[in-house]
Structures are given as structure tokens and as C-alpha cells.
Amino acid sequence: MTNVIAEKQFIFEEPQPFRSCHASTVAVLANNNVLAAWFGGTYEKAKDVAIWMSVRTDGEWSIPQKAADEEGIAHWNPVLHVHDDEISLYYKVGHEIVDWYTRVIRSTDGGRTWTEPADLVPGDIGGRGPVRNKPITLADGAILAPSSIERRDPLLPGKEIWEAFVDISQDGGRTWKKSSSVPMDLESYVGADHWIAKGLIQPTLWTTGLNSVHMLLRSTEGSIFRSDSEDGGQSWSKAYPTGLPNNNCGIDAVQLEDGTLALVFNPVQGFATDSPRTPLVLQFSRDNGESWGDEIVLENEPGEYSYPAIVAKGRDMYITYTWKRTRIAFWKITQRSSN
């Protein structure tokens, strides 16, 4: 995958209207405009943290504008998803992750105007719907949102258990049904010995058929984990480690039109969230995630380069990620024709 054309931009330059930004999401529209969103404010989980958005038209990014800002409470982890002619922007609201809940706004005019915020699942505490990465749509029209919760460990005060699942919608994202949780061998997990939590969160999904769905997961165990489903995401195999390192930081993958998988991640092993978040690389798999290679290095200098998001359209891949918590970086990577 070295035969590519790569273009890098910053979505905005300094001075920006917030001190810190993180957790970007990206989507490509039918007219090839690119939408990006992220959370920004004084610092993560501060009361002034809002969801910000920018649109890329003809290669240029617009000035960032607030997309969601409910006064006096932190906003987290926006996720953009395009389904038919509608764009959904999901995000979390809450003072602490264990108590946050999911809100959604929608647009039918390319992101120019949005509906009023609404709860995705009434009564939700802990977070339903997509937790950080984009949903996928199966051949039968079902939407699968990669989800997870971070809950307090009832047996160990001050510790948490992380659990992943999938939320499934059969009606275009209006209502959601929660899958079974991804089984874990928690007794063998050592993350809580090094840090505050053990478990798996923030899945990224792809499919290899009508009912065959797969996920890669962020873990507290020093490596990326995987789980598989043969019933459209309703139930999952016990999660197992892959050969890919993980620094307890976000990952994202996308399936290209020829079936190749593209994965963006930090190839660093670590148990805590203060593990190094550099370098940041893009790797490819042509055997359904069994092996990975053809690495493209996106960042390798000191600093934090984290929480990537990736989508694809045709031969083009679009990637955003946190750049030192002060900017959001963007790459467009195009595969050259082999002809």
C-alpha cells in the first residue's frame, strides 16, 4: 500500500476558540464535502467543553463552529454517521464517564442546520449508541453502533470494569436494541493492577457478510483485542488478543471497497491512559484482520497523536485525530490505480 497520494492538513490553525480539543470524528458526504467534529474547551470534562464542527469544501476547511453546547455540563466523543440523506451527530453529555448519557442531533441539508438535541435512548445512564467510532450498516439495512460502558467495580472501590457491546437499530437509528456484552476472561486481565480499570471499550466494526461482523477493541491489557459475531452482532465470541499492541487508547478501522481493512492506531504497548500516544500509524490487512502490514506513519515526533477516526469512499481514505490536544489533524490518502 505504498502506492498512494497523501495530503495532510490541520482543520484549524491557532488561535482557536478553545484551549484543548480531542476525540474527532469524520464523515464524507455525497457531494464529497467532508465533515469533522470534536470536543473542545478548557480541558477534558470541563463544564465549558462543547462539540465543534468544520466542513471541508474544495480542499478548504471552514472556521469551526459550535454544533452542540448544553450549558454547564461537559460534552464528549462526537460520532458522525451518514445514513441515506441524513447525517446524525451522536455525542455524550455528563460530568463523569460512568454517568454520561447519549444525545443526538440530525441534519438533512449537509450539516448546515441541525435538529434540537434529543436523548438517543430515554433513561440512558452510562452511554448507549456509538461510544467513539462510527456505526456500520449491514446488507439488510440494520445499523450497528459500536458501544461500551465504563462502570464502577462493585467489589473494588476506586476501580472500574469496562464492557463492550453493540447497539442495533432496524429503523434508521430511531430506536436501538442492545446486544449481549462481549464476553471477557476478566480474571486473567491485569489492567487494574497497573491502573484504575480492566476490560475492553470503544470497538470498531466491519462485516464480511450478511451476518458475519467483527470488532477490534481498545483494551487495558497492552494489546488490541478482537471479537466476532455470526448473528448480525446480537451475540459475540469471547474477546481474544491480537498481535497488535495497544496503549489503552482509541483505535479505528474501515473496510475499503476491495475488502482490505485499514486500521489507525498507536503501535505502543501500555496499560494506563498516560502510556505514550506516539507514533500514530496506518496499517492494512488483506486477510480479514489476521495479519497487518504496509505501514504508513502519520506521526512519529514526541507528543500526543491519538483517538483517530477513519472513513473511506472509493479509493480515498479520510483520517482525523488529536494533535497534541491543541489541533485536529486531517489526512486524505488516495490509493493509486494499479492499472
TL;DR of this structure?
The chain is 1% helix and 49% strand. It has one helix spanning 191-194, and strands at residues 4-10, 20-28, 34-41, 50-57, 60-61, 65-68, 75-83, 86-93, 101-107, 118-119, 136-137, 143-152, 160-169, 177-178, 197-207, 213-219, 223-229, 240-245, 252-255, 261-265, 280-285, 293-299, 305-313, 316-323, 327-335.
Task: Tell me what the structure shows.
1% of the residues lie in helices and 49% in strands. The relative contact order is 0.14. The protein starts with a strand and ends with a strand. The chain has one helix at residues 191-194; strands spanning 4-10, 20-28, 34-41, 50-57, 60-61, 65-68, 75-83, 86-93, 101-107, 118-119, 136-137, 143-152, 160-169, 177-178, 197-207, 213-219, 223-229, 240-245, 252-255, 261-265, 280-285, 293-299, 305-313, 316-323, 327-335. It has one domain (4-334): Neuraminidase, CATH 2.120.10.10. With 339 residues, it is mainly β.
Indicate the topology.
Elements: E1 4-10, E2 20-28, E3 34-41, E4 50-57, E5 60-61, E6 65-68, E7 75-83, E8 86-93, E9 101-107, E10 118-119, E11 136-137, E12 143-152, E13 160-169, E14 177-178, H1 191-194, E15 197-207, E16 213-219, E17 223-229, E18 240-245, E19 252-255, E20 261-265, E21 280-285, E22 293-299, E23 305-313, E24 316-323, E25 327-335
Parallel strand pairs: 13-15
Antiparallel strand pairs: 1-25, 2-3, 3-4, 4-5, 4-6, 7-8, 8-9, 9-10, 11-12, 12-13, 13-14, 15-16, 16-17, 17-18, 19-20, 20-21, 21-22, 23-24, 24-25
